[in-house]
Design a protein that fits this description.
With 677 residues, the chain is α/β, with parallel strands linked by helices. 60% of the residues lie in helices and 7% in strands. It folds into three domains: 131 residues, no CATH class; 210 residues, no CATH class; 291 residues, TIM Barrel, CATH 3.20.20.370. The chain contains 26 helices and eleven strands.
């Protein structure tokens, strides 16, 4: 069949008239939806979602019905015309006795009127062009459908890449959390949960085999409590079968692409779908409106910086109008009981959207970090030992570069860190090592506090008391000339390996010795095995294994995120609040290279960075403890043991990192059984 026959066919004419009629039909349907949404503005999002979906389906069915009706009418007219022509031919044969050409059959009045109508129509400038106009309309529509179909199929291809490219299972902890959420939300389908190094925003894909994919970086960028709400949002989309509706919606958008009201109705569906999912999340996570709103704000910040935006055929937690969604989420928080006057509620309702609007217009990150002031979390960081340990192929110059990077990052995040000097790293006891001593001076000159460790990094458990105090005093002798240049007196002492001796009596005796020398010890609440990750990272750097370095950084951040969750649980269980934390780190290249992620994660958990004085002035640090043993543990664990309670299960170091530590260990360690730094 040639194109000319197709273009001249009745189907093209019927399709053209269908498209023209759909203009007013879809307009009327959208107007009806507008009125219904206005009437139900205080109703549940599910009702408004159902109305919007119904309107889109009706907008699609109306042209289909029109096309079928015109096709039937055309068939009826063609049949009647053919029958009439047959009857006329038979009449001619009867009158002429078989000589059809010699007899003229009078034309009916109907035919005459048709001629009159045609003649009158010729006077109208457009009527004779209608067939050609209809063919152009259909041609343009087919061209548009082809273009939007290509866009739709490209979306399917991108989803295929999301499902197969650079994906991996999440950590065991998150896998268990995900299974728990599935049970909690009563999701009966089998849903796979993966993390990806390819995508930049969380998505839910698939109809028969649903899949939730989260960016690997999201596990580090977002507070675990917030991340749970994001995952729950995606699971709710799957439970509601929103992917099926979204798929049909995308197809209808292709067919009715030409009508602006189609896109308006479709936008209402996406808005109400997200509102409905948000409402379901808040039903599950009671009293978590601020947490969930903060999670969405974080996603908006990520979406604004993302280079790849997922296609519309996937559902995502950061879909719809984020600003409007956050306002609706927080709206319930402004509802106050009748016992309280109404004007504070009204004021709060007005201020919250206004503040959020300003935040989104000026800087989304402001809202992300707003919890710093609301939750009042604080943290002080101590580094042991400075200068950095040399594990590079080019010591000590590599230590200088590492220290410089670290100092710059601490200044960028405005962290009043304290560094504890290990004297044997900067002097032989008589003469200083110039390059390493300059690192300590750089730390001092940049305004960071300097504390005292041991001259050698030795554990108290394996060292007699007098030898231990001599080791500390020797370190003071090495350090004092450097501090005296700026009239600085050291104030803090950090126990090597966090080991405080064989007995509590030794511990208390040494504490008295410190007090006599104008020093007080640091009580670290957040201990960790960062030093093991740092060792593995240094080995990867020496081998110039960039891929392994990247993997170690990711595993390190995942581990540190879990450790914060772990020790925050101690704080809540023991004190019923977030006490100011103190964390121990080493000034390693791993910490320096991961500073943006590490300190950024800490800020997003609601912490502000404070000096050691401010953190340890909290009354919690006066909690009694009497731990003595060969290991070094955090003060949360010491306080827990002193109260006769069971320790919480601690997150484990990545197996690959442990293997590197075990297989490639080359540096002597005074106390290999030690957990902390």
């Amino acid at each position: 069949m040639s194109w000319e026959i197709i273009l001249e066919s009745k189907m093209v004419e019927n399709l053209g008239w269908t498209l023209l009629n759909s203009i007013w039909q879809i307009g009327v349907i959208s107007l009806g939806l507008f009125l219904l949404l206005a009437l139900t503005r205080r109703s549940s999002p599910n009702l408004r979602y159902a109305l919007s979906v119904s309107a889109l389906f009706l907008a699609f069915l109306a042209p289909v019905f029109t096309f079928v009706s015109r096709a039937q009418e055309s068939t009826t007219r063609d049949f009647a015309k053919e029958r009439s022509q047959t009857q006329i031919a038979d009449a001619r044969r009867d009158l002429a006795g078989g000589y059809e050409s010699s007899v003229a059959v009078p034309r009916s009045d109907h035919s005459s009127n048709a001629n009159i109508q045609i003649s009158f129509g010729d006077l109208l400038s457009l009527s004779k062009y209608f067939p050609e106009i209809l063919r152009i309309v259909v041609g343009l529509w087919l061209f548009g459908v082809a273009l939007y179909s290509l866009r739709l199929f490209s979306g399917f291809w991108r989803v295929h890449k999301y499902r197969t490219f650079e994906i991996e299972p999440p950590s065991e902890v998150w896998a268990e959390t995900f299974d728990g959420l599935c049970r909690k939300l009563k999701v009966h389908q089998t849903v796979r949960f993966l993390r990806s190094n390819f995508i930049e925003t969380p998505i839910a894909v698939g109809v028969l085999k649903p899949l939730i994919i989260l960016p690997a970086g999201l596990f580090l960028q977002v507070d675990p409590r917030e991340l749970e709400t994001i995952i729950a949002h995606e699971l709710i989309h799957i439970r509601r079968h929103d992917q099926i509706v979204n798929m049909i919606q995308s197809v209808i958008e292709v067919v009715l692409f030409y009508h602006p009201c189609t896109w308006w109705i479709s936008a209402q569906i996406r808005h109400e779908r997200e509102f409905a999912a948000d409402a379901a999340v808040l039903e599950v996570f009671e009293n978590s409106r601020v947490v969930y709103a903060s999670a969405l704000a974080n996603l908006e910040e990520i979406r604004q910086s993302a280079k790849d935006i997922p296609p519309s055929i996937v559902t995502a937690a950061n879909g719809g109008n984020l600003m409007l969604r956050i306002r609706k989420i927080l709206q319930k928080n402004t509802e106050i009981s009748n016992a309280i006057s109404a004007w504070p509620a009204g004021l709060a309702f007005l201020l919250i959207p206004a503040i959020l609007t300003g935040v989104f217009l000026l800087d989304t990150s402001t809202f992300v970090n707003a919890r710093n002031t609301t939750d009042e979390r604080k943290i002080a960081i101590g580094f042991v030992s400075i200068p950095p340990v040399d594990r590079s192929v080019n010591p000590p110059q590599d230590s200088v570069a590492t220290a410089r990077i670290l100092v710059d990052k601490l200044q960028a995040f405005k962290i009043p860190a304290i560094g504890f000097v290990e004297g044997s790293m900067i002097s032989d006891g008589e003469k200083p090592y110039p390059v390493r001593a300059e690192i300590v001076k750089m730390w001092r000159d940049e305004g960071f506090e300097i504390g005292v460790g041991g001259y050698k990094h030795i554990g108290f458990y394996d060292t007699p008391f007098d030898e231990y105090t001599d080791n500390t005093e020797k370190n003071l002798d090495v350090l004092k000339p450097i501090l005296a240049e700026k009239s600085i007196t050291p104030r803090y002492y950090s126990y090597p390996y966090l080991n405080t001796g064989k007995t509590d009596a030794d511990h208390q005796r040494f504490e008295a010795w410190l007090q006599d020398h104008g020093l007080r010890s640091v009580k670290y609440t957040i201990d960790n095995n960062e030093w093991m990750y740092s060792y593995a990272y240094d080995m990867a750097r020496n081998d110039n294994d960039l891929n392994l370095m990247k993997e170690i950084r990711l595993e390190f951040m995942d581990y540190m995120t879990k450790m914060f969750t772990h020790y925050e649980a101690y704080s809540q269980e023991m004190f019923g609040r977030d006490i100011p934390q103190t964390m121990v780190l080493t000034p390693s290249r791993l910490v320096a290279d991961s500073a943006n992620d590490l300190f950024g994660m800490i800020k997003k958990r609601g912490y502000s960075f404070v000096a050691m004085d401010e953190a340890q002035s909290d009354g919690a640090y006066k909690t009694p403890e009497s731990f003595a043993g060969n290991s070094g543990i955090s003060w949360f664990e010491r306080w827990t043991l002193a109260q006769g309670k069971k320790l919480l299960e601690e997150p484990q170091v990545d197996n690959g990192v442990q293997k590197i530590w075990q297989d490639k260990k080359v540096l002597p360690v005074a106390n290999p059984k030690k957990k902390g730094s």
